[in-house]
Each structure stands twice: as structure tokens, then as C-alpha cells.
Amino acid sequence: MAKNTICVWYDKDAEAAARFYAATFPDSAVGAVIRAPGDYPDGKQGNVLVVEFTVAGIPCIGLNGGPAIKHNEAFSFQIATDTQEETDRYWNAIVGNGGQESECGWCKDKWGLSWQITPRVLSEALSAGGGQAKRAFDAMMTMRKIDIAAIEAARRG
What are residue 106's phi and psi, to 5 degrees? Predict the structure, then answer.
């Protein structure tokens, strides 16, 4: 296990989420699936408690902690993309698998976890500052999924 691992709380579907992420993103995998050795207040012996997984090279564990704690936008995974095809693929995988669209490149998966599908061209435009950043920002503010061609056109003015 890595020295620093992101722990993501799920109601009961940590393994399903981990398998979806592993199938969707490169450099992702499911590791150990740890099951309860006995009954506990919210579950039974053999239920999945913790799943070790990697998302785009980031080590994580999924904890099946029950319904008490819900995901919110204070935590998200940001996935940098290089092409519209890649942006579309990740966006469509998340939204098309029971997720929901949000704004400015944000979406949620069906487990309520937030994702930012962010083309590098957008990050580069915003980092450039000045008019280029303002135009790209204004264009982004009108979008759900980021349209790379529209961001590039806004950069140019």
C-alpha cells in the first residue's frame, strides 16, 4: 500500500465503482478486496469492506461505510485530456453509466463522486492570463462538457 492513499467513502458499492474506474481510465486497476471477517452493525460476514484500487495512477481505497456520508463537490478527481475524443470518451462513460452532467467540465458518476474532465488546452489558456484567459474562461462558463474547438477559438479571439 502507498504511503498516502485517497480514501473514498461509498454506501455499499466500492467494488463496483473501482471496477468501473479500472475499465474506464488508463493506468487504473482493482487490487485487494477485503471482506468482513464477521458480522458488524451494518453488515454481515463476507461483505466487502474495503477495495484497493488505482485511478489514473493515483492509489485509492474505497470504503463501504454506509449511507451516513455523501460525496460532494469538495472532492473530485480531475482528469486531464488531450483531445476531444478523449474528453468525450470519459465524459460519456461517466454520464452514460448513470451519472449526471454538471457545468464547466464537471460531472458526477452514479455513486455521486465528482469528476472534472479537463482538456489541457483549457488549463493552458487559463494559465496564460490576460485576454486569452478571460476569453477561454467566458467560453467555458457556457459549457457542460468542454468543447476544445470552442476553447481554442476563444483563445485566439
Answer: -95, 145
The helix or strand, by DSSP H or E, that contains position 154, with its residue range, turns out to be helix 148-156
Q: Give CA–CA dist 51/34, Å, rounded.
A: 6
DSSP secondary-structure letter at 98? T
Whole-number pLDDT of residue 19: 98
Dihedral in degrees, nearest 10, Cα atoms 93, 96, 72, 114? 20
Hunting for cell 474495503 — which residue is that?
A: 50
Exposed/middle/buried for 104, CB within 10 Å: 0-12, 13-18, 19+? middle
Residue 33 to residues 47, 52, 132, 148, Cα–Cα distance (Å): 10, 6, 47, 38
The model carries a pTM of: 0.94
